[in-house]
Amino acid sequence: MCGRLNTTFDSGVKKLYTHLKINKVIDRPIDRRFVKAADTVSIVRNVGEQRRVENAMWWLLLDQTENDFRPSRFTSFNTRFDKLNTPQSAGYQAYRSARCIIAVKGFGETEFVDKKPIHYFDMQAESGGLILGGLYRTWQHNKTGEIKLSCSVITLPAHEKLKHIHSKAMPLILPQNLSLIDKWLDPQCDELDQFEHLLHPRLPQSLIAHQIDKPMTHRPISLPQTIPYD
């Protein structure tokens, strides 16, 4: 999965937020057609009895500056599924106690050959929105006391239905099952075996794929493809 999201806050995504039973909106959901890695995204997480919407930097590892935070030099907007159970990896502890979700309209993919982009695609839910499985971390500045959230999207191996678009990886798209979401967001839920089935390529929803000219302008240059759910 490449580093861009479509966080358009349309009626379908609004219904998805309602379905999530959020009871505390700290920050209004980000409403942008093009969000790139290290930009701000809205995450949903549980804090005590609250299910909150809060803004986070889409880059899990941060470095402290004199008065703020910046993205670490280590790329961490995505966390690979095969690193979740590797001690000392960036996502190891977060996977155990700091899971979040990112509700989006869609995401973008870029295919590279010899480090050169050969095509760009935008993917979006055929209806409603998508729930991406993610991780978060909380940082506190030791000078200013500022609290900063950061996050990443968990990525899986490429799905067979998507390999013509992106041959290496896809985001973890969670089924929109509230019981599962409740467990995913529960920081006390440490029975990780119940999430194992999620860490395999699967499409719980149908997607619409458009080839585009480039991410910043995202003009379609092909007819839409429907990629059916599994």
Radius of gyration: 17 Å
Percent range for helical residues?
A: 10-25%
> What order do the SSEs take from the amino end to the carboxyl end, as H and E?
EHEEEEEEEHEEEEEEHEE
| Amino- and carboxy-terminal Cα gap | 19 Å
Can you tell me the overall shape? globular
Q: Tell me about the largest β-sheet.
A: 6 strands, antiparallel
Number of helices: 3
Arithmetic mean of pLDDT: 96
Summarize the structure.
The protein is mostly beta strands and 230 residues long. It has three helices and 16 strands.
Describe the overall structure.
A hairpin with a 6-residue loop joins strand 12 (130-140) and strand 13 (147-157). The protein is globular. It contains three helices and 16 strands. The strands form four sheets. A six-stranded antiparallel sheet has the order 3-1-10-11-15-16, with no helix packed on it. It is mainly β and 230 residues long.
Can you lay out the helices and strands and say which pair or pack?
Blueprint: E1 4-6, H1 11-19, E2 24-25, E3 35-36, E4 40-47, E5 50-57, E6 62-64, E7 69-71, E8 78-80, H2 92-97, E9 99-104, E10 106-113, E11 116-125, E12 130-140, E13 147-157, E14 169-171, H3 178-185, E15 207-212, E16 225-227
Parallel strand pairs: 2-5, 8-13
Antiparallel strand pairs: 1-3, 1-10, 4-5, 6-7, 9-12, 10-11, 11-15, 12-13, 13-14, 15-16
